[in-house]
Amino acid sequence: MWFFSRDPVRDFPYELSPELPEGGPPGPWSLHRGRKKATGSPVSIFVYDVKPGAEEQTQVAKAAFKRLKTLRHPNILAYIDGLETEKCFHVVTEAVTPLGMYLKSRVEAGGLKELEISWGLHQIVKALSFLVNDCSLIHNNVCMAAVFVDRAGEWKLGGLDYMYSSQGNGGGPPHKGVPELEQYDPPELADGSSRVVKEKWSADMWRLGCLIWEVFNGPLPRAAALRNPGKIPKSLVPHYCELVGANPRVRPNPAHFLQNCRAPGGFMNNRFVETNLFLEEIQIKEPAEKQKFFQELSKSLDSFPEDFCRHKVLPQLLTAFEFGNAGATVLTPLFKVGKFLSAEEYQQKIIPVVVKMFSSTDRAMRIRLLQQMEQFIQYLDEPTVNSQIFPHVVHGFLDTNPAIREQTVKSMLLLAPKLNEANLNVELMKHFARLQAKDEQGPIRCNTTVCLGKIGSYLSASTRHRVLTSAFSRATKDPFAPSRVAGVLGFAATHNLYSMNDCAHKILPVLCGLTVDPEKSVRDQAFKAIRSFLSKLESVSEDPTQLEEVEKDVHAASSPGVGGTAASWAGWAVTGVSSLTSKLIRAHPTAAPAETHIPQRPTPEGLPAPAPTPVPATPMTSSHYETQEDKDTAEDSSAADKWDDEDWGSLEQEAESVLAQQDDWIAGGQASRAGQVSNPDHKSPESDWSSWEAEGSWEQGWQEPSPPEPPPEGVRLASEYNWGGLEPSDKGDPFAALSARPSTQLRQDSWSEDNWEGLETESRQALTRKKREERRREMEAKRAEKKAAKGPMKLGARKLD
C-alpha cells in the first residue's frame, strides 16, 4: 500500500550539502559535499542520476560502484557507504577535493611545494602498482580529474569507471565517449594497430606522464606539448621522459619507476617522503626505531605542510603515546603540531593527553612537560590545574634530581594565576619555605626567591604580610651571592605590598646590612633599593595625604597586574640561574654548596646588639664553590633551624594573630642582625653573574626618583623636621602611629644610653641563642651515638640503613 512506501534517499544516513556541486571528474558522476546525519562528520558524495536512453553510461556507473566498494588500498579513494536505486546511485567516500581545485587554491596561497608533489605522485604511482601488479587491473583513466586530495594533503586515486582486467576477462577496455578523457590516451591506441608489442602497464604509465606534466605546467593543451618538460624539476625529467616515450615497451613498471625516483638524488628521495613511509609502517617498527624517529621529527615539522601535520602526524603521535609507550620523545613534536590547532581542537586532542602525562613517573616526561608548559598553559582551566595537575607537579619539589626541582620552581610562574587559595597560599608556600632554607643547590634557592617575588601579587594579603618580608630577608643572608641579589630585587619588585611601618622597621634594616656585603653586585643593588625606599618614606613624610594612596595595595586582594611588573623586574634571574644550575649539576651531580655559619660576637649583658661591621674578606674563585661542598650535614641542619626560629615557614599556624606575628618578625630580624658580621668565607660570583647588574637594572622597572619640586609655602622639609626634640609642631606627626614599637617608651636621651632595642628584645635574643645552642648539641650527640652503634662493617656485610 502507498502509506507503507519509503523513500530510500530520505532515509539514507548521509545528507547532501545545499551548496552547488564541486568540480567533479568528467563523466557521469557529480561530486557533492555532505555530512553524516548522526555525527555531522564531513564526507564526499558522488551522485549519478539514471537517465532514460543512457544504458551504457549506467552500466559504467554500476561497474565503478562495484570496483570502488571492493578495492581497499591506502592510496585509493576510501569507500564508506553507498545507495543504489532505480533513479540514482550515491557513493559516499572520505571528504576529498579534486586535485585541480586543490592546486588552484594552493596557487593563491603561494603554490604547492615540491615536497608535497613528490609524496602525492608517490601515492598515485603506488596505487597503480597495486592495481597492475597485485590485481592485474588496468585503470585506463589516469588524469588530473581522477585524482583527489583529502584534508591531510594525501593524494587518492579515483575515477574507476573505465577499469578493466589485464588478463582479458570481461572483454577489452570500455568506450569512454568523453573527449576530455580521450586526449590522455597513448599514441599506440590512436593508431589502432593490434600488432604493437606493449606491456600491460604501458597505457597507464603514459597517462601518468600526462598527469606529471599537468601538475607542474597546468592543463595539457595537446599531446605534442609533452615534448617540452616545462617546469618539471630536473631530477624528475629523465624518469618523465621514459613515461612519454613513443615506444610502449620502454615505459617502466610502476614499481620500478618508484625505485628509480627513490634512488639517491632522485625526486622522491627526501625527508618528507621518508617520514610518510615511516608513519605508514610505524606499527611494525621496533621501539628503538620509533624513539629515534620522534626525536628527529620535530626538526622537520617546520618544513612540512600544516594540513599534513594536523591530520596525519598528530594522530600518529597521540596513538604512539597512548599505545606505543613512546614516552617523552613525543612531547616536542606534539606541542609543535599543537600550534596549528584551534583552541577547541587543542582542548579536545592535546589537553587530555597532557593531563595524563603529568601522572607519569617517568622523569624525562616530567621535566619536558615542565620545560614546555608555556605552550599549553593557556588552554588549561583552573579546576583541571588544581585537581589533576598541581598535585602531581608538587612532587617535583621533593625530587632528588636538581634539574626537576628547578623546573618545578619555574613552572609556578605559569601555574600561580590558576591556583586556588589552599594550593597557592598554603601548599606552595610550604614547599618554597623548605627549598629556600634547605636546598643544597644555591641557584635553586635563588630561583625560589625570584619566583616568590614574581607571584607575590597573587598571594592573599595575610600570606603576603606573613611570608614576603621574612623570605626576602632570609635570601639576603644566603651564602650564594646571586641569592642575596635576588632577595634585594624581590624587595624592590614587591615594594607596593609593604606598609610604611614594614619599610622602616623590617626592610630598611635588612638592606642596610647588605651595604657592607663582600660582593659589589649585592652592595650596588642594596644602595639602589635603600634610596628608593627612602624616597618613598620621604614623600609620605612631606605629604601625609599620600599615605593611603601608597598603601592601597597592602591589604588589597591578589592583583595579576602587579605580577606583570615583577616579571619584567626579575626576568633575568631565571634564565641566568638556569644556565648556572646546569653547569653545577653537570660538573658535580651530587655536590652541594655548604651552608656557611656566620660567626656571632658575644654581646655584653645590658648592651644592645652591635651593628654589623665589615670584616676584610678575600674574594674566592669559582673553583672554591666546589671545594666547600663536602662539609658535615650538621651545618645545613643548623642553618635551616635558624629560619624555623623566625617562624617564616610555620604556615600551619593559621590561627596566630597578625600582631603576634609582627612581634616574632621584629625579634627574629633583630636577633639575626645582632649576631651577623661580614663572613670572610663568602664566595665571589662566577663569570656568569658578571652581567647581573646590567641585566637586572633598576631602570627597567623602577626609575630613580627625580629631584622633588619645591614644597608649597608653609610645608617643612624632612631635613628641617625636629625628629628628636620636644618642640611642639603645628600639624600632627604622620609617623607617630608608624613609629610605635612594641617595646617600652624611649626617653629623650635613649640613643645616647645605647638602650634602643629594649630589655624585652634582649631577653628574646638570649633565649633564641640558647635554644639554638641546645639544638646543636642534641644533634651532635645523636650523630655520635649513631656512629658508635654501627661499629666497623665486616667484609661482605650488607649495609641495611
Record the SSE blueprint.
Blueprint (H helix, E strand, L loop, with lengths): L7 H4 L2 E3 L13 E7 L5 E8 L5 H16 L8 E6 L3 E7 L1 E3 H10 L5 H21 L2 E2 L8 E4 L4 E3 L6 E2 L13 H4 L4 H5 L10 H16 L19 H7 L10 H8 L9 H10 L6 H14 L5 H18 L7 H8 L4 H7 L1 H8 L4 H9 L10 H12 L8 H14 L5 H18 L3 H14 L5 H15 L5 H13 L6 H14 L6 H23 L4 H4 L9 H28 L35 H5 L5 H13 L12 H18 L16 H4 L63 H32 L11
Antiparallel strand pairs: 1-2, 2-3, 3-5, 4-5, 6-8, 7-10, 8-9
Protein name: N-terminal kinase-like protein
Function: Regulates COPI-mediated retrograde protein traffic at the interface between the Golgi apparatus and the endoplasmic reticulum. Involved in the maintenance of the Golgi apparatus morphology.
Family: Belongs to the protein kinase superfamily.
Question: Can you walk me through this structure?
Answer:
With 801 residues, this protein is mostly helical. The chain is 49% helix and 6% strand. The chain has 31 helices and ten strands. It has a five-stranded antiparallel sheet. The longest helix has 32 residues, at 759-790. It starts with 7 loop residues before the first helix and ends in an 11-residue tail after the last helix.
What would a concise description of this structure say?
With 801 residues, this protein is mainly alpha-helical. The strands form 3 sheets. It has a 5-stranded antiparallel β-sheet with strand order 1-2-3-5-4. A 3-stranded antiparallel β-sheet has the order 6-8-9.
Low-confidence stretches: 561-709, 715-760
**Count of alpha and pi helical runs:** 31
Cα distance spanning the termini: 91 Å
What portion of residues is helical? 40-55%
Cα Rg: 40 Å
User: Which structural category fits the helices and strands?
Assistant: mainly alpha
Q: What fraction strand?
A: 5-15%
Largest sheet strand order: 1-2-3-5-4
Coarse morphology: elongated
Described by strand count, sense and barrel closure, the largest sheet is: 5 strands, antiparallel
Mean pLDDT across every amino acid position: 74
Q: How many beta-strand runs?
A: 10
InterPro entries: ARM-like (IPR011989), ARM-type_fold (IPR016024), CIK-Related_Protein (IPR051177), Kinase-like_dom_sf (IPR011009), Prot_kinase_dom (IPR000719)
Region (Disordered): 16-36, 541-562, 588-801
Biased composition (Basic and acidic residues): 775-788
Function: Regulates COPI-mediated retrograde protein traffic at the interface between the Golgi apparatus and the endoplasmic reticulum. Involved in the maintenance of the Golgi apparatus morphology.
